[in-house]
Amino acid sequence: MRQPSPRRLIHLAALTACSSLALGAQAQGQSQPAEPAPPAAEAASAPAGNVLSPVVVSGSRIQSRGFTQPTPTTRLVAADLDKTAKPNLFNAIAELPALQGSTGRTTSTNSTSSGIQGLSSLSLRGLGPIRTLTLLDGQRVVGANVTGVTDVSQFPQLLVQQVDVVTGGASASYGSDAVGGVVNFITDKRFTGFKANIEGGQTNYGDDENATLQAAWGRGFMAGRAHLTASVEYSRERGVPSPRFGGAGANGRTWFKNPAFQVRPISQTGDGKPQYTFIENAQQFQYSKYGLITNGPLQGTAFGKDGVPYTFQYGSNGVPTGTGAVTGCVTPFCVGGDLSGTVGGGTTLGMNMTRQVAYTRGSFELNDDHEVFFSLNYGKVDSRFTPNPGAAKNGNLTIQCSNPFLPASIVAACAANNITSFAYGVANAIFPKDIEVNPVRTQLRAVVGANGRFSALGKDWTYDGYAAHGQNTIDLRVANMTLNARYNAAIDAVRGPNNTIVCRNAAAAASGCVPLNIIGDVPIDPAAWAYIAPANGPFQHSRQRQSVAGINVNGEPFSLWAGPVAVAVGAEARREQYYVLADPYGNGVTADSPNSAAYPADPLLNTSVGNNWYAGNYHNARGAYHVKEAYLELNAPMFKSSQFGEGSLNLAARHTNYSTSGNIDSWKLGGLWKTGLDGLRLRAVTSKDVRAPNLSELYAAPVVINNTVNYQGTTLTVQQRTIGNTQLRPETGRNTTFGLVLAQPKWAPGFSASIDYFDIKVNDVISSLNAQQLVDLCVAGNQEVCAAMDLVSPTKYVTVQAFNLASMRNKGFDLEAVYRFGLAGLGLPGNMTLRGLATNTRSFKTNSGVVGTIPTEAAGVNLGNTPKWKGQFSQSWETDTASLTLSQRWISDGVYSNEFIECQTNCPVSTLTHPTILNNQMKGALYWDIGGSYRVSKQVTVYFKVDNLTNVDPVAAPQTGTGYGINPFLYDVLGRQYRVGARLAF
C-alpha cells in the first residue's frame, strides 16, 4: 500500500488543528464546490457554453469570463445545502459565522407587537436584516414586513442551485440596503427531469415534529428552445408547546431555571457590593399564580384552591414589610420560594410554522441570441406561538374589601386593620386559554424578462432585464387577548339586587360587563371570559407592494496593456408601498376601521387613540416611495507578467434618486493581485454604501398619548405624538475589506484558505428615542429635534419619531479554509473534505447620539448577537454511494455587557453607564452535528441528520424583568434534533 506523503500529513494535521471548514461553505476565489471541480472563482469564470446562461458572480454585476472579484463571497452549492438537511434553507444560511442577528421561528416568540414574529430574515455582521440585501436570482423580492425585509421561507428552495453570501458592502452594484452585504439565492433555471425530497424528524424531547415534502420538475420543449420548470413545497414544523406556569421547561427540558438579574438601586451601591447579581429560580414577588396581596397590612396573603387564603412563601427567606417591599429580596425578585406562578418558561421555544410554496419558470429562445422568460411564485407562511401564559398583573390591581368574591376571613381582616382596599397581583392562571399570536404572510410575485447578446461598436455585449411585481399580504391575528378596561371593570364586583354579584361600574354593567373572580384557583365564568377576551382579538392587515424593473448590460468594449476591460452598466426603477389596517380597539375608531360590527362601541374603551388591549395594540399606517438609479461598474486589468502575476481594479459607482430623501451616490473601489507566488492572491475593496429609510420609518402609524417630561428643571405634561419622519436621510456606510487568499498551491493541491479584515462604519443611523431623550437633545442644541416639539405654548407636545442620530462601527476578521484529498493513498475509498469558517468580531460600537450616554461595545456580548468568535467546522467523507459528515458549530465565551464592571467586594459606586456586577461571564457553546447519506439506487438516496448531537443546553440569558431567559439568536434552544429523509431523482 502506498503511504501518504509527509507533506500531505502535515497539511491535514495543520488544517484540522486550526481551522477546518464551514458547513459546506466555500469562498469565491478561495475554495471549491462540494463535488470535485475547479475552485469556485475558476468555476464561475469557466466558459458557460450558451451565452444565455450568464456567469453568476454575486459580489459584482460583472459577468465576464475570467473575472475574479475582490469582494469576499462565501458560496454554498446544492450539495452543501443537502448535507444540512434542514426543513428550511434559512436555518442553514443563518448558521454561517458572518450571519449574526437573523430572525427565525425561535426568535421573538416572547413578542406580540414587534411585527417580525415568524419572519425568516437574514442579518450580516449583526447590522440587522434591514441592512442586509436578500435577493432571488439577483432580483429584489417584495418585503414581508413594514421594514421591507424579505422572508426566505417564501422562496422556492428545492430549485436553489447555490447561495452566495457577499460579506462586503455592495450598494454600488445592487443598490440600497446592502450595507452589511448581500445574500443571493440562485435557482437552477435549466433543471431537467424530476426530483423530490421527503423528510421528517423531531427533537430529543418528542416535540417539534416536522415534515417536509418537496418536488420539482423541468423539461425542454421545441428542440430545447423552450424550457419549463416547476416546484411545489410543503413543510410543517409543529413547534414546542408552552409548558405554561411554574418555570418548568417544555417536555422535560430541565435546563430552564428562571434566570434573572437582581438589580439594586444605584443609590445603595456605596456599600462596596455589586449592583447586579445573576440569580436562578427568580421569583416575582408582585404576583402569584392565583393571586397575592402585595401591599398594606395583609401583604403576603396568597390565594389557592377555591380562594382559600394562605401565607405566601417568599424566596430568599423574605418577609413582607407592608409597604410593598420584601426583606431579603431586591425588587422585583426573590430567589426560590413559591415558583408556581412564574411565567418566563411559558414562552414558546419554537413556533408552529407551516410553509407552502409553488413556483414556476418558463423561458423561450427567440433565436440563438435572445431569450424571454417569466416566473411566478406563491409563498405562504403560517406561524403560531404563545408569547406568555395568562396575563400577569404585577401588583398594580386594586381590590376593594367589599368585593363579594373575597373569603370572609379577608373581609374581617380588612375591618380589623381599618382598610377598605388592597394592592393585588396575579398571573391569571385561571384563564382557560393562553395568548396565541398567528402571523400569516402570503406572497404573490410575477417576473417577466429577457436576456441575450448583441453587437455594438464592434464588440459583443450581453444583457439581462426584468420587470417584477410582488405583493405580500400579512394578516396578524391574536387570540385570547384581554381588554384592560373590561378586565378592570369585571374584577371590581359588588353585591347587586337580590344578592347577585354585578360589576360596580354602572356604564360597564349596562354594556354587558360580567363579574370576574380572580381570587384563587376558581374556574372562570365562561361569560366573564367572553366579556374580557372577545373572540375578535387584536388584528392587523397589511399589504406590501413592490414594482421593479431593471436592466444590466455587460461587455468588453476595449483593452488595456494587460487585457480587456470588462464593463457592466445598468439602471433600475422601483416603487415600494404599504398600508396597514388595524382593529378599532387597538388603533382607535377611524373611517376605515375594519369589521366595525365585530368590534362594537363600548363606553369603557378609548375610541380616539385605541391601546385598549393588554398587548397587541396595532395602528393604521400607509405610505409609498419610488427610486430611480443607474450604475456603472468596470474591471480593469492593470498588469500581467510571469514574474509579478496579474493585477486588476474593480470600480463601481451608482447614482440613486429617492422620492423622499433626494439624491445620493454610492461607490466601490477594489483591487485583486494574483501574485507571482504560487496560489497567493491579495485583495482589497472599500465602498460607500447606503440604506434608505424604509416605509415604516418614513410613515410610521400616528399615535397620540399623554406623557410627562422634565424640561429645564420643570415637569411638564405633554402630548407625545408618535409619527413617521419623511425628512429622514439615508444611512451611509463605509465598508473596507482587505485580505489574503491561498488558492490550491502546487505544494498543497486541494487546499485553499483566506483571511480578510473588515471595517464597517455606518453614519446617520436611523433610530428612535423616547420623549425625554428628545427633550434632552433639544436642550443640548440639536435644532432638528427642537423643530419637532413645542414646550412653550399652551398645547405642549413632543413628536416622537426616528432621526438620523446614531452611528455604528463593526470590525474584525473572517477566516475560511478547505482541504480536499483522496483516501486512496491510505487504502480507503472516497475523498475527504475538511472545512472551516470563522468570524472574529473585534469591536462593534454603537453611539446612540443620546445626551449623557457613551458608545456601547457589543462585540463579545452573548446576550446580543455578535460574539467574539463564531465558527463552523466540518469533516466530510464521500464516495460514489455514501457520505458521512461530522460538523461543529462554535460560539466563544462572552460577557453580559462590556459596560459592566465586574467585582465582588470593594466595588466602586455604580453609574448608569458603568454598573457593577458580581459575575460578568457568559459561557459560549460548542455543538456537534452528524449526518450521512446512502445511494440506494440511481434514483433514490436516503439520508439522516442529528443536530446538537450531545444535546447541549442553552446558556442562561438573564433579564432584568420577566423575560425569555434564553438567547435564541446565538444558542440552540430546541435541543437534539433527529431527521431522516429520502431524495428522489429521475
Automatic annotation (TrEMBL):
The keyword DNA damage does not apply. Keywords: Cell outer membrane, Membrane, Receptor, Signal, TonB box, Transmembrane, Transmembrane beta strand, Transport. It holds the Pfam family TonB_dep_Rec_b-barrel. Residues 499-949 form the TonB-dependent receptor-like beta-barrel domain. It is a multi-pass membrane protein. It comes from the Bacteria. This is TonB-dependent receptor. It is found in: Cell outer membrane. GO terms for cellular component: cell outer membrane. It comes from Roseateles puraquae. InterPro entries: Beta-barrel_TonB (IPR000531), Beta-barrel_TonB_sf (IPR036942), Plug_dom (IPR012910), Plug_dom_sf (IPR037066), TonB-dep_rcpt-like (IPR039426).
